[in-house]
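Protein in question reproduced for absentees:

***
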Amino acid sequence: MRDHLLKLSFIILVLVLNSCIEPFSPPEINSPDRYLVVDGFLNASNDTSWIELRHSQNTNDNATYSVESGARLTVESEGGSIYTFAEYGSGRYRLLPINISPADKYRLRIKRTNGQEYLSEYVKVSLTPPIDSINYRYDAGRDAMVIQVNTHDQTNKTQFYRWKFEETYQYRSAYISSLVYNPETKQIDYRNEDINLCWATKKSNTIILGSTIKLTSDIIKDLPINVVAVNTNKLYIKYSILVKQYGLSQEEFEYWTNLAKTTQGTGSLFDPQPSQVTGNIKNVADVKELVFGYFSVSKEEKKRIFMTPYLGQFPRCDPPDTVSVGDYMNSPAGYLMHYHGKNQDTLIRTSYGCADCRAQGGTTVKPSFWEF
């Protein structure tokens, strides 16, 4: 009887506790305010610098993020030099290569169209050692190719690193379309553009960091940069990855570390943020205003590799169908593959996604860096 009463008491307690639970979301998460988001850095590698300005959104907002256009961006050195960015569209601002003194400090100034002005702290130039090598290995357990980076600093001064990458892969559509219907002439012509072979490029959307602060030597060895699953078919023909490496200050490393912890489920700086991670940029008139982003000056080191592992499978699609030329001309639809029959009185056709590789988001224009 005593055991029965204990069990009954426990059940009642659970019911009471459950009845008291109410969903709670911190006000920062559901705030309707749109805070400024700054993403970019001053490139100390005699290369173009890019900075993007957008607006934050709460975690329950599925709308496409909005951009900040019409702003005026300048970089100021402690030595008195001023460099102005030019707007490139879609909230992107560009600064052509400038001479950067490693001994100087720099800050970012932003003037928005609403009159608000923002300043970053002055930051030192972070030098970056070259990438020693990029290697890859097949992981049978994950059925994926693991891409790794190696680097070192003989002076033991870097210690904090960040990486980004751009992957480009070559792929084909399942079927070849050699014919095309011309709606102007109402004739079937031979296609003069190859839409069977494409290239697609995707940028990294995760924060990749590394530190040697606890090691005796400033050496990064076989750090995983990307994992490419075989079932993506990115490795079936040819695959290339461009790895970008940056040396960081300890403050910037801590900023990106904290941001990585809060964006594991979102993806990037511009995605909805589950908590507040602010950087070194402040509103001049209101230092309490939330501003997201960290301005830095860093030398960018890059290295590209190609691989042809031939892993995956040829793309599959539904079987094409056959239609007479007359029926097709009465109601043109679908992508034409080729003529069929001795008298070429029938056509083989398929769907857009099966014959046009661009349907998967790629382009038929071969990148300038692509190996033959």
User: Anything to note?
Assistant: Residues 131-238+311-360 form one domain. The helical segments are 2-19, 250-262, 325-330, 352-355.
